[in-house]
Amino acid sequence: MKTKLFFILAIVLLCSTVKAQNRPSIPARDRTRLAEAFRLDQAIGDRIWAGWSKVPFAVLLVTPDLEFLMRHPQPSADFTLLGYDRELKCNVFFRKRTFPTHLLATAPFIQGSSYSTIVVGQAENTEAQTSTPWVITLFHEHFHQLQNVQPAYFPDVNALNLAAGDTTGMWMLNYAFPYDKADLEGQFSELGRLLAEAINAHTNTDRRAKLAAYLTARQQFQDSLSPADLKYLSFQFWQEGIARYTEYLVAKFAAEHYRPRQEFRSLKDYVSFQEHANAVRSRIITQIQTQKLSSSKRVVVYPFGAGEGLLLDAVRPSWHDRYFVDKFDLRKYYPDALPHETGSAHLQL
Fold first, then answer.
1. Is the pLDDT of residue 72 over 70?
2. The model's pTM
3. pLDDT tens figures, 331-346
4. Which residues have a Cβ under 8 Å from the Cβ of 222 and sit 6 or more positions away?
5. Which of 165, 242, 286, 330 pairs with 303 at a CA distance of 20 to 30 A?
């Protein structure tokens, strides 16, 4: 009897072990990266953008065979609960892969839910390539989640009347902006040079002069665009450019106010947040001065809008307060008077 009982117990234990071995799991390196992103998010709270802490940091990690959903308020029925992850501090769900492994995008991807979800491949399969840039890039997408939850965001986007019947949102990528127009390319290159000079100004007097030159050139460039093209470019600077600028702010915050866990610092491809913050800012300035409309096309909006965020920090530090009120046009946040009017009370240098 004891032998029979022992045999039954052994079979039960073996089946349990096999079942546990067959359970899917987030790869250890990805789990460490995700845990660091969620921990950094908690440290940031609302210190960069008001209300950010209240936005669900919903992420769908795409691996070669499976997708893992976490921190989503409304998982759809095609997901299976894996269980509570103590390192990630949330329930994790999984399903068979449906998205490309290199994808990095944010939208209401989960069926039946209006919540925006970050769909992201493993670092090695995305443009980020390595751990620290991948973690910071998640905050670019998390900022899009903050944009999307604003009460009138989607109605106001529709009111731009730029979709031309497209209901998928792909018009944001495919809008027929005249990138190849030669006179626009020349003006835009000059605008980038002036923007970089204004950002890098070392004194208030120097910045006033360079800001004046930049804003004058910016107005001339705007006057060369059709109303629809101007709305599109302004929207992209506002949306994607400030998301790139936010990457820099997050990396800078992490460098100055946050200590990553040993598990994250032990990853072979780890670089410090300070090193990455420096790299992000340097890349923004370099791309502003070197990217061409005709070759880079829509990609120019990322560094250019980010550069305007950096300049606004210098000339109108309170501009964050207006970002979600006066939407889709960074021009609205500049001082009300041009800086050559040196007595203007609107300048904050």
1. yes
2. 0.89
3. 999 986 444 333 333 3
4. 230, 331
5. 165
